[in-house]
Amino acid sequence: MELITKSFADQCIAFPARVDSVLAEITTVAGAKDLLGKASAMQHYADRLKAGIEVQKPIAVGVLKIKTKLGELLPEGKRGPKSEDNSACQTSEFGKSAITAYRKMAANSEKLDDYANATDDVPTQGEFLKYIANGSIIATKHGNGIVDWYTPEKYIDAVRKVMGGIDLDPATSKCAQDIIKASTHYTEADDGLSKDWAGRVYLNPPFKMPEVKEFVFKLCDSIESKAVSQAIMLTNNNTDTKWFHRATRLCQGVCFTSGRISFYNAAGDQSSPTNGQSFCYFGKRQAAFAREFSKLGVVLCPALKTK
């Protein structure tokens, strides 16, 4: 295993400032393209070493700065007189989607440093573009590096029909509440796990460990203490996990959805996880759950216990 030398780490940490200095002198597409190639090689090397976010993040910021500069230098698509640096020919070396992305980044160049400072992860071109589209807001991440995904309205409508309303959503965002409209809601900043839960709860926990387990166990504890009267929980159908087993043993019904749910995010994107989803119902309105959620998938309810 290769080790990260202190000199390489120091170069990486200073990379954004170095890029700013070099870009100030670059006036051609060819010059920016050459610098991007060198920066990409540096980024690949750091990734291969698994150098860690302290090293990888500044390199990624430098790469975004160079792409932003390219967006400024690349000519418009219309043919025109051949320029001194042959930039019209240089344009053909980039894909149409890359050129569009670079130009959008260039048009929002003043937001790049704010984005880099706001994110806790290694910055990427895709996430910067989402940051721009989302009104300069960083969305909280759920499992597998996917940004915060929200439940489509038809499922929330079913939740309301079953429970009669939603008193609490303990793992949510302001954007998601445009549809959920819970009487009380807790965002990541509120730390829903530290609060008392009561009433009718809708839970769509973060799809990553250990958060998903902590939220599911918190709900189960609140059901068992009778603080929560009804609840519907949406998770991936990870049937091999302890948290899924605890929830399904306690609940009064499970719906395995027909196909994977197409979630949406604050930027307007839609995406489906790689595995299926399920809803668990806790409460006394088992028949209502079976009626409404059978429209959305296969519903299984535990047999009544016999003496």
Look at the structure and give the mean pLDDT. Answer: 85
Number of domains: 2
Number of strand elements: 11
Q: Please identify the structural class as seen in this structure.
A: alpha+beta
Low-confidence stretches: 78-84, 140-147
Oligomeric grouping of the chains: single chain
- Separation of termini? 63 Å
Q: State the share of residues found in helices, binned by percent.
A: 40-55%
Put simply, the count of helices is 13
The CATH class of the largest domain turns out to be Alpha Beta
Biggest sheet, strands in spatial order? Answer: 5-6-10-7-11
- Provide the gyration radius in Å: 25 Å
Structure explained in plain terms:
- It is built from 13 helices and 11 strands.
- The protein is α+β, with helices and mostly antiparallel strands.
- The protein folds into 2 domains: 6-138, no CATH class; 146-300, Rossmann fold, CATH 3.40.50.
- The strands form 4 sheets. It has a 5-stranded mixed sheet, with helices on both faces. A two-stranded antiparallel ribbon has the order 1-2.
- Helix 3 packs antiparallel against helix 4.
- The longest helix has 21 residues, at 29-49.
- The protein starts with 5 loop residues before the first helix and ends in a 7-residue tail after the last strand.
